[in-house]
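Sequence, please.
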């Protein structure tokens, strides 16, 4: 991204205004690690809906925003971290409902998801199946024109407050994706406390013979895993931007601190080894951002971007871990204090190397695409 078009600049200015006016006052009423309430989450989503952030690449004539992935990402980069994953995942659920839902599911759920009246989550991971979703144990069995689903899903972002969950389960036809209402009989959930990104609504979901009508299958039975892998490609480029944002926010704080904190009679930013920490960090942030936008550009061209998005994801999230560590170092002792945001950025960055494929899994994808040889089999 070497510059923004006039249209992109207008999108960014518009979302910045909405954030300042409607979203920051909500977030500022919470402690720095505190998740926003469900009603505030919906208020935020309604604001983002007006900006087209929930409609993403769904065509305008079908209720979406008709945006390129790069345009959406430019807006996404502006979102406060407390609500970015909320918007990313709920809008991803809307996309999946639009592109794969039955007529009934689209008529019932798409509008409310696009308007921010419903919150979505995507449930693939299980206690025994993380990096390898093929090993999942959640099962769905047909019973007349319904499916009966049982299993446990874990580390589900938005899971604590979602109204609808996209759940992948094993069926006779293979892995299949379903849309489930979270107030269905047999559906329970429990918040998970994490090291970082404590403001996210992370939960474990329990499905005990949850019944859904046949129309709630997304795509066709047996397609669930392929669809999931395809959605991971786009998700990885967007998670890369979460890494970029985390590192960028931390770096901004480090620059300001290095300019204003004096030791040996001058700003610490004049000491050459502090300059090195800043120079390394600034270079890594820009490199990661370019990798993310290269992948997004390929999606805009209608291509897949398996290696490009895997490179962006592992590099940007490992980069965020390193940069936030550099930033704590630049701050000295106060960098470890709860008083400042930098300790939170450091904890938040650690969360990003795991989802949407761990660093190791993404490196295996890159190597597979380079070598034509897979370490997965
Ligand atoms: C912040 C966050 C948000 C998340 N959001 C969601 C969500 O919304 N929905 C959802 O379904 N899941 C979500 N997850 C879960 C996430 O997808 C899994 O945690 C991830 O896939 C890794 O699975 P695991 O934790 O079981 O680790 P494991 O798969 O058990 O891996 C443990 C370690 O072994 C390594 N490893 C595993 N296999 C290999 C291999 N073949 N070669 C080399 N190394 C290997 C891994 O890299 C890792 O270091 C989220 C997780 C986090 C942290």
């Amino acid at each position: 991204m070497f510059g923004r078009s006039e249209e992109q600049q207008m999108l960014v200015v518009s979302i910045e205004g909405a954030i300042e006016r409607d979203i920051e006052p909500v977030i500022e009423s919470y402690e720095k690690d505190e998740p926003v309430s469900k009603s505030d989450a919906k208020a935020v989503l309604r604001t983002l809906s007006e900006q087209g952030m929930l409609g993403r690449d769904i065509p305008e004539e079908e209720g979406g925003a008709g945006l390129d992935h790069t345009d959406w990402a430019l807006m996404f980069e502006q979102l406060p971290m407390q609500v970015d994953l909320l918007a990313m995942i709920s809008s991803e659920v809307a996309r999946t409902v639009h592109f794969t839902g039955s007529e009934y599911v689209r008529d019932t759920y798409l509008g409310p998801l696009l308007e921010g009246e419903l919150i979505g989550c995507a449930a693939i991971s299980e206690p025994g199946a993380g990096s390898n979703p093929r090993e999942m144990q959640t099962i769905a069995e047909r019973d007349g024109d319904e499916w009966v689903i049982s299993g446990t899903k874990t580390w589900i972002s938005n899971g604590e407050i979602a109204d609808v969950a996209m759940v992948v389960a094993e069926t006779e036809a293979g892995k299949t994706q379903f849309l489930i209402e979270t107030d269905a009989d047999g559906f329970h959930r429990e918040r998970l406390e994490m090291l970082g990104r404590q403001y996210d609504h992370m939960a474990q979901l329990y499905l005990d013979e949850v019944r859904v009508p046949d129309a709630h299958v997304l795509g066709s039975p047996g397609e669930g895993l392929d669809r999931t892998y395809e959605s991971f490609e786009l998700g990885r480029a967007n998670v890369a931007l979460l890494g970029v944002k985390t590192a960028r926010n931390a770096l901004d704080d480090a620059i300001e601190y290095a300019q204003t904190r004096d030791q040996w009679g001058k700003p610490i930013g004049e000491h050459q080894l502090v300059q090195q920490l800043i120079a390394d960090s600034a270079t890594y942030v820009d490199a990661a951002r370019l990798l993310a936008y290269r992948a997004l550009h390929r999606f805009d061209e209608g291509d897949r971007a398996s290696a490009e998005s895997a490179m962006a994801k592992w590099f940007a999230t490992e980069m965020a871990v390193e940069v936030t560590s550099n930033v704590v170092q630049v701050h000295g002792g106060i960098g470890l204090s709860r008083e400042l945001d930098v300790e939170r950025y450091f904890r938040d960055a650690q969360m990003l190397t795991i989802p949407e494929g761990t660093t190791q899994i993404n490196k295996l994808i890159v190597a597979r695409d380079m070598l034509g040889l897979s370490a997965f089999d």
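The mean pLDDT is 97.
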